[in-house]
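Support reply, case 0932

Customer input (verbatim):
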Amino acid sequence: MGKKLIDIEKEKFSALFNHATIGIVVTNQTGEIIMVNSQAEKQFGYRAEELIHQKIEILIPDELKQQHVQHRSGYHQRPVNRPMGTNIELRGRKKDNSTFPVEISLSHFKENDTTIVIGFVIDITERVQQQDKIKQLNINLERKVYERTQILQEALMELERSKEELSAALEKEKELNDMKSRFVSMASHEFRTPLSTILSSVSLINKYKTSEEEDKRDKHVQRIKLAVNNLTLILDDFLSIGKLEEGKVAANYSEFELDHLIREADAEFQGILKPGQNIVHQHKGKKEVCLDKHFVKNILINLVSNAIKFSPENKNIHIITNVDDAAITLAVKDQGIGISDEDQKHLFERFFRAKNATNVQGTGLGLYIVTKYVDLMNGKIDFESRLDEGTTFNITLPIIKI
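Our regenerated output:
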């Protein structure tokens, strides 16, 4: 009776073993295969008798056999039931030397003080193929999203180009290789603000028709002038950067009085000075210099305009010039918001705006343009700044004699 029960149990085990839907490979402590089921035969293309007494490395790709011997030795020293293949690409080797992706789980038991290891093998070829298809679909989708994004960006740029003088500036910006995305977001904001101011002021002026309301009309006229001036400065920046990047600008030296040029520029600043602000100019040395007058004026306008914007009311802006036999120096000093240490290293980059300047109108191109003009005159520019204390820009230019 007992023998019959044992036979029944053996038949049950044999049925479970041979009809399992996953491959099963059993090895002894030396890594020798002692049993395989029919599913493992199908997976690897061997008959059972071809595998029995072979080392398990017969089912491992050639380039991984030596490494597997070490792993097998380590496993037998500290055997533990565990899944394998998590985040690791495992492959099995067939009789015809082809390989296929697998997932392997290990289990073990003791038999007469010998460790027997059971490997459960799942062929995941179809799963990997599906994953590859999904990856390819994702790549295609990402490419389509990127293409659609590019189309959208170009459409936005076309919309901005429809604005009269900006169209020429945008054509130039289009040729700059790394400005596209930042330009779209910046330009839409910087133009919308002054245009909205102009529209609202024009609408309000129509309501003030009597002579008693002249002050109110003048107030809105000043707002319009300031907004138009902001637009002009932005357009000048765009036009200048395009020419500078294309190498179409060269220094044109001539002799002129530096003090007189600063007085000319000072007249342009009067319309944008805040209440209580004044331009204070100090000059030392010779009056006449030999420089590119247009470059110097643009440098001065950029630096002083920034000083006005970033300084509070009732704080003066200082222009300090010095001409001697060694060099020409020009400094613009303010008592404004200053520049953080973190932002200082990026200050002369295109489109850069300091974190504490995001609420102040500007393109982020002014200082970049200034550095280009200084370079074209073989000069140097540096600055000193502290948060909430102010900033001083120092420009040194070589003496030129015609």
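We compared this against your earlier run and they match. Two observations from our side: Residues 38 and 372 are 77 Å apart (CA to CA). The chain has a mean pLDDT of 80. Please reopen the case if you see a mismatch on your end.
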